[in-house]
Amino acid sequence: MRKVAAVSLFAFLVTSALAANYQITKKIPIPGQGSWDYLSVDVEARRLYVSHSTQVEVLDLDSGAIVGSIPKTPGVHGIAIAPELGRGFVSNGQASTVTIFDLKTLKPIADVPTGQKPDAIIYDPDSSRVFAFNGGSNSATAIDAATGKVAGTIDLGGGPEFAAADGRGFVFDNLEDEGLVVKINSRDLKVEQRWPTAPCKAPSSMAIDRTNRRLFLGCRSKVMAVMNADTGQVITTVPIGDHVDASAYDEETKLIFNSNGEGTVTVIRQDSPDTYSVVETVKTLPKAKTMALDPKTHQLFLSAAENGQFEVLVLGK
Fold first, then answer.
1. Domains of the chain from N-terminus onward
2. What DSSP character marks residue 242?
């Protein structure tokens, strides 16, 4: 009994240490003006990709130094990384294209036509396809990551927001206006399921726990919904801040982060696959609602503007 108690106490102390006291540890100024959207982390190459109006800023993930940029990406929204192919993909909302670029040189390889106003973009390693979600045409464009050719277009039946891939042949996407999650077969390019997210309203962001088959949906109704990725059942909801726009799951610490436009990040602990609790609410800056997680250092990166200066906020301990 003593050994069990000691192990339990150690596990509790480790979890508590990992869970607490996130704060802004650094602010990285980015030259120039303009809007921003998603950020993306390349863990292996130690790079951070930051959308910035008409180009992508590329930063060294550890030092914060700007190491390059990807120009001519008008209305850039998101960046997807395919490390095994040495390629990256940028969704250009104004041009209705995806720019393919070389991960080492950052040089553009090709521009691929999509549906209208592509926004969220992800890479699915199981099918080796990139999925660009088109907000202007309620569709998703699937692109073969190796060849750059369009594999097909999927009618979603609603306005797509963020997405996640489970690594088993399925891609999930929020339909914010419909209050639904769609389950897409990434090989057949068909919507197989349409799941209501109620009591979550206006699902905007998404993260995934691939091991426990759980989707984490950031909802504009100020909750995070936990959904079973196999059945579509909404297991529980947890309160978060206002105007969420990004969610991230740290597999090692079992923490889920929701970045909110009100200027906060809600940190939630996964106590079990079906049980969750709010750990803390971290103050950031107003409109700092897009976010990326570095699973190696457990740091968070958020885009923001302060006194007219565009910058990346680094959250850590």
1. 72-196 (2.130.10.10)
2. S
For residues 270 and 195, what is the distance between their CA atoms, to the nearest angstrom? 23
**289: three-class secondary structure by DSSP:** coil
pTM: 0.93
What pLDDT tens digit does each residue of the chain (317 aa) get? Answer: 344 444 444 444 444 445 569 999 999 999 987 889 999 999 999 999 999 999 999 999 999 999 999 999 999 999 999 999 999 999 999 999 999 999 999 999 999 999 999 999 999 999 999 999 999 999 999 999 999 999 999 999 999 999 999 999 999 999 999 999 999 999 999 999 999 999 999 999 999 999 999 999 999 999 999 999 999 999 999 999 999 999 999 999 999 999 999 999 999 999 999 999 999 999 999 999 999 999 999 999 999 999 889 999 999 99
Classify strands 87-92 and 97-102 as parallel, antiparallel or unpaired: antiparallel
* Helix H or strand E encompassing 7: helix 2-19
Using CA atoms, how far residue 147 sits from 76, 130, 142, 168, 177, in Å, is 22, 11, 12, 22, 33
Q: What is the 3-state secondary structure (H, E, C) of 99-159?
A: EEEECCCCCEEEEEECCCCEEEEEEECCCCEEEEEECCCCEEEEEECCCCCEEEEEECCCC
